[in-house]
Amino acid sequence: MSQLKEKLTILPDQPGCYLMKDRQDTIIYVGKAKVLKNRVRSYFSGSHDAKTQRLVSEIVDFEYIVTSSNIEALILEMNLIKKYDPKYNVMLKDDKSYPYLKITNEKHPRLLTTRQVKKDGGKYFGPYPNAGAANETKKLLDRIYPLRKCRNMPDSVCLYYHIGQCLAPCVYEVTDEQNQEMVQEITRFLKNGHSDVKKTLTERMMKASEELDFERAKEIRDTLAHMDAIIEKQKMTINDHVDRDVFAFAYDKGWMCVQVFFVRQGKLIERDVSLFPFYKEASEDLMTFIGQFYLQKQHIKPAEILVPKEVDTQLIHELLEVRVLEPKRGPKKDLMDLASENARVALKEKFSLIERDENRTIHAIERLGKAMDIATPYRIEAFDNSNTQGTDPVSTMITFLDGKPNRKDYRKYKIKTVEGPDDYGSMREVVRRRYVRLLKENRPMPDLIVIDGGKGQIAAAQEVLEDELGLTIPVCGLAKDDKHRTSQLLKGSPPVVIPLARDSQEFYLLQRIQDEVHRFAITFHRSVRSKTFFQSVLDDIPGVGAKRKQALLKHFGSVKKMKTATIEEFIEQGIPHTVAESIVDKLKEGT
To answer: What pLDDT is recorded for position 95?
Structure first.
């Protein structure tokens, strides 16, 4: 801590970025500042909300990078967040994608819905609020413009030709002029040319009526009604038809809600809602959010961006190279006010849910740490063994981060060095394998290790950690009662019971951890056992070698499905008839 204080005294009064680190030397937060000295020092002085206090409590060191301007600091901050993915920069973890309509760049183009925007020569329109809205618009255009529908050209006309939604270029000649005319009409429609298309359709309806083609006239009338229904849903309009994104925000108690309105061709078609904790000035985190927003490939920069008065418009303009405005009056200001009101409402509505979730997760691990007399266990790793009378022994490890499952860090282990039903030996092996690997890769260690078992399993884990690896990680065990439910939390050597109220969130957290690691272990063991049974049950059948067994398992997926398969289904996989009969008979013996 003294070293940290010394570093705080020599911070420069220049713009730049700072990287906060925890005791594992992991970067947990990245920020930018106009004046590094003032910003970084502010974390370690004065009072903070609970979330900032939690961040500061984990900081044991920091680095900083000086830049020559605020815009350089913003760009560097975005790149550092993308590189390190710090856990407290949660605002940037947004995997949402929106549907678009696409006209393909092919000799005979198609109209598709897609969530991926690529540089492939196609024309993209959107984004749309959801797949339903995009598909609804596509269905309307399919009724009006008979572009090709099939991905691969068939040898004969399909249903779409018979219902008038395809010109069937697979069979009949369709000229480039015909295709381009339809593409231009669709483009005009999607770029707010509804009135022109409506006028053309009305003329066609009248002509069909005059020619006594009442069925065709009715079809066009229904299409016009469908068009009116779709257009009616887009009520918020600005007459200049410019594509723009509108950013507004609200904040309270260390949380921020950002609303982004997507306006396309003057119409409000969708919004994006993001809710996250912030640790700097609200306006600065909003600017970081805007910059990061367009790093995500599903977000295409529009012609114009509207931002609230708190945002430095020149800075965002230089960063994104688009027109950035702060509306002060008129329809744009009304749109900004609407987005701001939505942000306030969303923050108010979700705040109680956030607090409940905090109580179940962050507050629960804080109280658990206090009960066990250890530092708050932000990262918990839990182990469980599984075997059937000593056969096919396996073990699994799961990770809970900030009180929630972190499934990307789950691991499966097949026991390699232990013979027979030896839970203690299995525990020693997997603990050794896990933490030797983390040491070699210089990766963060857990704050707490949870063992599904009693004093024997705890002792086995501690023996490896302390005696072999020299690690001082707290280890606890979870004992179960006669109904196989989480009963007691054990810690120490010899283990003692840590009293926890049965109705406390920290007890519920331990139950979730124990249930999850047990579920993961059982699922993995069943998979291994199934494969082992399959390998062994076919060992004595002539004509079934290792490659053929592997191919069958890959095709059928499980022994259970294979038991219900017919001889013909095995023959279809290249198995000779007599061998297929032998397989079916052998599998029936094991039923």
So the answer is: 46
